[in-house]
Each structure stands twice: as C-alpha cells, then as structure tokens.
Amino acid sequence: MDADDLAEKLEDKAPVRAPGGGGRGRGGRGGGKSGSWGKAGDGGKQREKQISMALSRLLRHQALNAGIKLDKEGYAPLDRVLQWGALRTLNVTVQEIIQVCADNEKQRFAMKPAAGGEGAGDDGSADPSHWLIRANQGHSIKLESEAVLRPITLEADNVPPVVVHGTYFAFWPRIVESGGLRRMGRTHVHCSTGLPDDEQGVVSGMRRDAELLVYVDVRRSLEDGALTWWISDNGVVLTEGVGEEGLVPAKYLKEVVGRKEDAGTLWKDGEWVADLPENLSSRPPPAKGGRGRGGGRGGTGGGRGRGKGASRAS
C-alpha cells in the first residue's frame, strides 16, 4: 500500500457531512453560496474538502452502485452526480464543482461540456445537465486505460526522467516480501514524476507525508516488454503491473531511500542493499488528519478511544 492508498482508504471510510453541524445549507458555516469559499476561511475550506471527498468516493468507486453510468473516458453526467446522496445532502452547486475542479491541488477531477447540450461550450453554465465530470485516476471501477490515459512508450520517447512511488516505512517490509510494488485495491500502481516539494511543482501521485521513496526504472521495464505504463491528465504515472496482484517486480526498483529521514539506501538497480532500520520499520504510518500515528482515534499514544488504526491496513 502506498501513501495515497492509505489516505484515500481513510477518507472513503469517513462520513461525508455538511459543514456547520450537518445542516443542508449551501455554505455550511462560512461556505457561502455558489462556491464563494475563497474568502470564507476554515469553514469554506472544510466544505471544499467535503465536496472533494464525496466526488472522489463516487467517481472512483461508487458510480456503478449508484446507478450512474460512466462513459468510456470515465465521465459521468453532472446532473446525476449532484443527485447522489452525499452531494445532495451538501446541496452542492455547479459553480462549487467548477471551483473544486480548478482549485484541487492534486487536480483530481476534470470537467467538460456535455456534447450536444444546449449550454455545451458555455463555461459559465449553471445547468448541471450541460456538464460531464470524471476523476482523473485512482479508480477501483474498471475502465479501459486507453480511453482515460496516455500511453508511455519508447517509440513516443515520452518516458519521464523520474518516476517515483511514495510509501511509508511500515509498508516497506511487506513490499520486499511480496516481490515488489502491488496495486492493492486500485486499478493501477501510482507514481509521481517528482517530489511534492520540488521546484517544478509536482501536484499529484504522492502524499506530502510519504516517508520512503521508491524510484522505478520505467525505461528498463519497457525495454524488457514487462510492463505497460500510462500518464494521466494530472501527471500521475500508472501501471497495471503484471499478474493477478498487479505487481511491479522488484527488479525494476532503481533505488529506495528515505525522503526526509536518513534510512540509507535500501535497494539499488533491482537488488537488495540493506534492511530498513528497526526503529523505522516498526513505526506506524502517519494518520490522515493529524490525530497521531495509527490512523484511528487510538493511534499509538495520545489518541482517544480504541481505534485499530491505519497501521493495520495492508
């Protein structure tokens, strides 16, 4: 499991509530009307987060269960999306959806006019039937990669110079035991073309709190004909891996090093170099939302209650 997997698994389990005590008003507390959260402070940011979480859950995982048909590119009719339970409860407007798509730091979503609609091509249309929306990547819903993503090939000479997968110290022993990176519950293994704090402003493909950097030799895997690689509209590099588990074999791991803490070089050019120091391998992954380590309310010390914690996720 990578850092994004863990965070999104926790988000998927979190209830989506209207900000401001669960009220159904458009702005919640400070959310304002028609998506005016830019000046609304913490209340507006919380509403933006709630909308983003609900969209991710629906468009990546729940659309089929909700009776919403995605087209071959993963787009759904926005009017149907806004009628889905959590978004209907939040009473979300079209303008708020447009703003979430524009402002989301990881560029998780894309919108386009619905073909043939009366307002098609009108960027300011407030009629949801004039719009389609999709998640750019991260689906557990099966979609054809060719329709949603751009291929990375030697012939196109578009192999990124850096492809890196971010994970947590706690997950590294399992990665080694399993023989490489696995896609887990997703359709793809997710990688970034740089680090979140790089000057080029990489926005997606890795959590900001990732502890371990796994650099992947995409070019070598393509030369061997072993893996198929893709890149999404928001710059995430993806592969289905091989076999039922969607494995990126360890022979294609170019280098594995700590991100902010010195863990030494653990892997180099497809070969084991050293084990992760015990004090790091036994450390639970950071919790989403700052409740202490462990992911649940219990964590490891200082938590409230008896949550099992995210450190048990696999």
UniProtKB/TrEMBL annotation:
It catalyses: 2'-phospho-[ligated tRNA] + NAD(+) = mature tRNA + ADP-alpha-D-ribose 1'',2''-cyclic phosphate + nicotinamide. Keywords: NAD, Transferase. Residues 1-47, 274-314 are annotated as: Disordered. InterPro entries: Ptrans_KptA/Tpt1, RNA_2'-PTrans_C, RNA_2'-PTrans_N. One of its GO terms (molecular function) is tRNA 2'-phosphotransferase activity. Its EC number is 2.7.1.160. The keyword Repeat does not apply. Residues 19-41, 292-304 have a biased composition (Gly residues). GO terms for biological process: tRNA splicing, via endonucleolytic cleavage and ligation. The keyword NAD applies. Residues 1-15 have a biased composition (Basic and acidic residues). Pfam families: PTS_2-RNA (PF01885). Residues 305-314 have a biased composition (Basic residues). Catalyzes the last step of tRNA splicing, the transfer of the splice junction 2'-phosphate from ligated tRNA to NAD to produce ADP-ribose 1''-2'' cyclic phosphate. Belongs to the KptA/TPT1 family. This is 2'-phosphotransferase.
